[in-house]
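User: I'm putting together a teaching handout on how multi-component assemblies are represented. Below are the sequence lines for each component of a complex, exactly as they appear in our records. Could you produce the 3D structure of the whole assembly as structure tokens, so the students can see both representations side by side? Please keep the chain order the same as the input.
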Amino acid sequence: MPQTGEQIELKLTEPECVILDNGIKTYIINEGQEEFSRLDFVFNAGSSLQAKNLIAGSTIQLLIDGTKNLSSEEIAKKLDYHGAIVDTTLSKDNAGLTLYSLNKHLPELLPLISDMIVNPSFPKDELSNYLQRKKHQFLLNNDKVRYKAMLEFNKLVFGSNSAYGRVVELSDYDNLVRNDLLDFFNYYYTPQNTYIIISGKIDKKTISLLNKYFGNNSKGDTVIPDSNLNIVNKVEGLNKFVKKEGTLQSAIRIGKPIINKQHPDYNSLIVLNTVLGGYFGSRLMSNLRENKGYTYGISSYMINYKHAGFFSIATEVNAQHSNAALEEIKNELTKLCNENISSQELNLVKNYIYGTYLRSFDGPMALAERYRAAKDLNLDFEYYTQSLNKMMKQTSQQLKNTANKYFNYNEMIKLVVGSMESN
Amino acid sequence: MINFDRFELSNGLKVIVHQDKSTPIVAMNIIYKVGSRDESVRRTGFAHLFEHLMFGGSKNIPKFDIPLEEAGGENNAFTNSDYTNYYLTIPKNNLEIAFWLESDRMLDLAFSKQSLDVQRQVVIEEFKQNYLNQPLGDVYLLLKPLAYKKHPYRWNTIGKDIHHIESATMKHVRSFYKKYYNPNNAILSIAGDVEISDIKKLAKKWFEPIPSGINIERNYPKEPEQMARRKKSVKRNIPLDALYMAWHMPNRTDIGFYHCDLISDILSNGNSSRLYRKLVKDKGMFSEINAFVTGDLDEGLFIVSGKVLNHITMTKAIAAIESELDLISTEIVDPIEFEKVKNKLEANMIYSSSSVLTKAMNLGFYELLGDANKWNNELEIYRSISREEMRDTAKRIFQKKNQNILIYNKQS
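Assistant: Of course. Below is the structure of the complete assembly, with chains in the same order as your input.
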């Protein structure tokens, strides 16, 4: 077996920040080899801020469906003609519009994007067409145990009446009107509530184009977050079973609310979570897939939002093994609390994490992705390099302590969607 | 333009190397020329089952993933009708670990009954999760045997029957490996911050001692020309009726493939595409609609799929699609619309050359097509196509007798 080499140091340069004339902060990641760029426009306008379900998602989505100057079709034609890709994203905290474009087309495309995010018209028929399509997607997804479990778990872990906990229901698709979007847009889509990340091969000209098209709109005030906003409630019960007839597999979610990334224990938790279910060779995969064949896949992960987060184990198992799978998950969590991780396994997991970091910061697009994730939580690149160093120093004893603090099976939510019969 | 070097070892392994100094990550891709089209009709799903077994330990390495993860690497694989593709990425200073790992499982697998038993079960769960336990999961299990009667594309990669997987024995598995997993039946491609001379040394050291296998003769039964329209309907518990239409089309290297690819882009790539614009947005007949080519090496399928809104009858839905296909078969497209799809192809090609992994995979795939340099010529081929040629191919493909229709009716 060949020797492994020394770890290459992860070096990250904090992006340069340029402030546009109207105050929009623009972060520049100039690392590209090819003549194209990615632009992320991020608005502090996530789903937790909406008064009714679907407002935040419909608002960001309908930016591409008509402005005061252009119809949805005209926008689509322009974007497609220039080979541009526009994606929209929505999280509980933020909404984003991302443009991928060849640099040579930016002078044509930036004014178009500016029109989309400054002058959207939210046409009524576009909204009803969009809601109709979304409603059918929802109906189709809702038949999947995986999707049902995801919604159900979100309610359990954050509390179904809280801003983070509430989830979409079928009737929501019939209760949205154009004014909901307009109000939401006018309140949240202001320069003070926006930032931009530009990544790729970038020159000075592009930055001045950005200022020209995005730096002069100055309407709106700084949004003061509502301190009375009920972001999360208490966990709603630890055991839940949602029966679904005629299903071959059951979806299982085991988890709990978890500390945020700034917490001193967080780095230890990442290592621990990786051992448990964070990579292909993890203990859960080895046990439930490779040894027992209960499932095609099982994983565990942590999700962080601005104000709260959770830890979850997720899998779909052969329905007749639902109980056996729960038992094995319990065993794996208990083992982490009771036994030291061997130095060989710990070493493997550290190297794996290191490789993952190296990969996930590779290239301008990946850097933009990671930087945005950091910004969403008020962190920067330095956080990642420090975090990686701390992870590399974790000892088995520290990890056992962390497990005992956070991975007690009895404190976890246990959700099964499907069937529990053992036939 | 992607530059690369290419050489062949004495045992027949083809090696392609692309240098990209901008990243500390190296990508390694291996294609084995074996897919579900190589399976016997009595033992389908084997190529894919085998992909799972390749992670169950080789001659000198009990578990493939462990040393790779220890070296900060990551890997995965996929199987399709034509080939099986293994890929990994690893920090550049651990590249030799990747050579060691991949060459060992090309040399010999450590077959164990336990590994086979478990992977069989995992594949059966994969079958259930992706094909049986979700609405419309079985589309290709139904559509392929409808469209193909002779060619092995008539079964899906996962297999036509779960029992074929259940009854796989050690003997079957061993002979499959011996026949297909050989250096002369593989393509190795590498992209990253590497020197060609180092790769030559490493390839010689790790891969050249592996003996070559037999030369495989490929004589797939040719699918006879379809002479009459075929139709199949099923009832399922779904919120909307769904429709899948498929036409036989030219193979991957035929110029007709490129025509079809452009046709599918005109019809459904992007929000300004015809089917989306007219049938989803303007007329509100479908909740979603797509047109695409399967991209198989042998004669593949041109597929249009859609989910039909409740107030539209299936007959009307089919007629609406057919009227769009008539249009593209009879009228020459607008030059701006034609330029648009070509521009989109160009942009996508540049976007996809930004990662070492997609570069390694593409170089391997085009070498499988006959020459890695074909990747560099792709855009030129698309650019050279005329609007008239595209129309003529559309006319030829979208004939009624060449059509297969699969309808999912919702249970009332």
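A couple of points students might notice: The CA atoms of residues 82 and 337 of chain B lie 33 Å apart. The first helix of chain B runs from residue 46 to 53.
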